[in-house]
DNA sequence: ATGTAGGCGCTACGCCGACAA
DNA sequence: TTGTCGGCGTAGCGCCTACAT
């Protein structure tokens, strides 16, 4: 066979009983992705679910798809179950969630208490590198960033010349991959050589994709991939029309809503434009406890692509932001690692970038099909001209208004020791009443 | 990059406006697959459609999927449009059909006239070979069966030593592939060498898969693949649950039936256990004009897998059969080619095998969800013990009862010159009132 | 007639520093 | 610190025939 399967021990795919490591899943999903806690109450948006299908099939929802008047634009649900999976073909991570719409009485109750969810397990001791052309070329191996190798790879025996060892890493499907890890060259550097190229070709990695290494609790090295945002990764839909898919999720939600019975959805964070299962508390806070109006300034988090970040930094017009989950990350990492706060904060900051914009309108995204929906009800204009491909509409819970004053002061006095770059808006305090979201 | 793309000229996938060659599509779909004629009336079976999803997602339809009482088990439809496609990733062929349920009055009319469909264009001048281990190994090229090369490849210039030429073939996506075609060795043979291996690796072909070459009307060489029946080709459904998919097709059909509006379905002949869009005439004939009863013997066509055929032939218990469309094939080929009838018939026969069995019962497959459905209403027992994986239930239009006498004599007196193998049931006449069905 | 294997030339895979950036 | 390149040794790709079935 052409594609060598050396180092690849096939697993029975049917079973899939093995539970995917949660931290590996989150690492592959990306830093901004969070899953609501099992047992908590969430809000489900058929529109957002539909957008995931549209983005995957690369086809907009057709006009002749019937309306579901009985299906409200948002469904308050009990989240019964969440399981993490990875696509057999692509290693894309996705989550399966079992939702149960609340009955009318429960829905009323839902607005009363502030629900405390548990923050999702964000990985702590891992590293993620975006592959360069050299990394994916057949000419050589993989250049390991120095700090990453020292942080997550087992220490080398430096009495050897050159120092080297065999690394065994398990991917999302529990297949083993073996790599030769060597420390050589002038100046000295960490490299993965033998075994690397078969991995690259088997996973069909290209420059721009990312790989990440992480330890599990059983002291095993895990290995995940995060593919670059392809222009469009067309899903093979040779078996069901995209229209039927749209209808399918609507019908499933409508039936569940009508009977208050459970239904199942798949959330693919890399394929979906936005999260469409939101913690109830986050939704309530954004919709009922935050005042927004046209003309208001806001900011919103995005995942980093190195290139754009550097460019923006040079232009001096990007605000880095720390919020919500990051606090959890920082605290836990500071406890575990003996690294300086500032260094750690800057490490984490490197994964995010926030863009600023102005609210230009508040209206229904689809007044016919989904009147009075909060999904993408906010029309926005982005500051950067480079943000041409950003969504012109966002949902309230995705943005952070800037003109409202912080209601509480931060419990975690984050102060940068170096001066705040001139021309940037001042950091405003981090709210502590985040209600446990994320 | 690891996978060389030499000989691969990328096409814009978004457009997909180019129309797929019909004969190539049918060649890839296999000899038993036929598409109803555009404009004709057909019967659509939600159950069969559901089976296609189940087979693709490798997941049975869940019990908690709601019923669609308003959706009958079969829908008589006008077939407005049929387009042929091929999966970008796998080259799997599939068809997109636009159906419109007939209103009640039209439904009644439908049972009156016998509708004459046009037989689908089955390829005539082509060849198909199942790849051997040598064909797919990196050690060498592709061994072209002699008759195939002489029939479909351009004639070689035998003044050259050795005779050789460059073949250019276009795949289902109109990508060009170049192969060196050479006639050498002792004894002499046709081989594809340079260019073959990149094709094998790009298409990820393995031993057991088939390739086929065919000419289009513009005198271009076309190239398709037919993958072996993998144990299960799990569809990447990281974006929509199989439950939602089942619901989706039901909802689409129910909505279309309720409003007599058009809907769209995908038919993937290699993934679907059975055809679920049947020419109306074929349905009517099988259901209303054929008497079947428990204990009756029947036979049914299947596609050939060489190995099983050889084994069965040795056991002397297989009946090869010619029926319906085959007549069309034979006649057109005899006109075009100057090959003897017997030779041609035996060539075509090699693509089919029919298994025999006994009807053991007639009942609803799913009495709760789909009462009074003709879908797989016939419970059968197969003669061969090797047919353990065959469906225990079939539909009336899939089988050919043997105890009924032929209603008409054959217009095409097919007589084998060699004696009919002893122990085999006698050939019965071929019916001419096939109403254009395939 | 055609699947497989041995022989063997040569491409390109992949391991190594040397350089910048 | 790390991306890319020139260098090179060699595994294995791929073209040929021989042989068996």
From TrEMBL, chains A, B:
Domain of life: Eukaryota
Subcellular location: Nucleus
Transmembrane segments: none
Ranges for domain TF-B3: 127-229
Signal sequence annotation: none
Record text on subunit structure and interactions: Homodimers and heterodimers.
Reported function: Auxin response factors (ARFs) are transcriptional factors that bind specifically to the DNA sequence 5'-TGTCTC-3' found in the auxin-responsive promoter elements (AuxREs).
Family: Belongs to the universal ribosomal protein uS15 family.
Protein name: Auxin response factor
């Amino acid at each position: 066979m052409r594609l060598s399967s050396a180092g690849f021990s096939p697993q029975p795919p049917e079973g899939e009983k093995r539970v995917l490591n949660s931290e590996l899943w989150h690492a592959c999903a990306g830093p901004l992705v969070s899953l609501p806690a099992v047992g908590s109450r969430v809000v489900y948006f058929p529109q957002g679910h539909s957008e995931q299908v549209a983005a995957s099939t690369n086809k907009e929802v057709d006009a002749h798809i019937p309306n579901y008047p009985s299906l409200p634009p948002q469904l308050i649900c009990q989240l019964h179950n969440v399981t993490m999976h990875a696509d057999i073909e692509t290693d894309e991570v996705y989550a399966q969630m079992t939702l149960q719409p609340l009955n009318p009485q429960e829905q009323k109750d839902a607005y009363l208490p502030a629900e405390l969810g548990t923050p999702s397990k964000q990985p702590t001791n891992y590293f993620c590198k975006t592959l360069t052309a050299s990394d994916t070329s057949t000419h050589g191996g993989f250049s390991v960033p120095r700090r990453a190798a020292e942080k997550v790879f087992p220490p080398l025996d430096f009495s050897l010349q050159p120092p080297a060892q065999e690394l065994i890493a398990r991917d999302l499907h529990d297949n083993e991959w073996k790599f030769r890890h060597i420390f050589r060259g002038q100046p000295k550097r960490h490299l993965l050589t033998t075994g690397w190229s078969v991995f690259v070709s088997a996973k069909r990695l290209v420059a721009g994709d990312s790989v990440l290494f992480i330890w599990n609790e059983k002291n095993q090295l895990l290995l995940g991939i995060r593919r670059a945002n392809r222009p469009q990764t067309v899903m093979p839909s040779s078996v069901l029309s995209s229209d039927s898919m749209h209808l399918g999720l609507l019908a499933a939600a409508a039936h569940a809503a009508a009977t208050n019975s459970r239904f199942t959805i798949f959330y693919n964070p890399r394929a979906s434009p936005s999260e469409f299962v939101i913690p109830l508390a986050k939704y309530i806070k954004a919709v009922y406890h935050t005042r927004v109006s046209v003309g208001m300034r806001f900011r919103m988090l995005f995942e980093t692509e190195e290139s754009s970040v550097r460019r923006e930094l040079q232009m001096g017009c990007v605000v880095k932001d720390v919020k919500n989950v990051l606090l959890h990350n920082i605290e836990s990492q500071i406890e575990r690692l003996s690294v300086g706060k500032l260094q750690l904060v800057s490490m984490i900051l490197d994964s995010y970038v926030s863009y600023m914009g102005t609210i230009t309108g508040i209206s229904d995204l689809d007044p016919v099909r989904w009147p009075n929906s909060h999904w993408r009800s906010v029309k926005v204009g982005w500051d950067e001209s480079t943000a041409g491909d950003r969504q012109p509409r966002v949902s309230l819970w995705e943005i952070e208004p800037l003109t409202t004053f912080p209601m509480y002061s931060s419990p975690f006095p984050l102060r940068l020791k170096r001066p705040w770059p001139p021309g940037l808006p001042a950091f405003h305090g981090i709210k502590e009443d985040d209600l446990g979201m994320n």
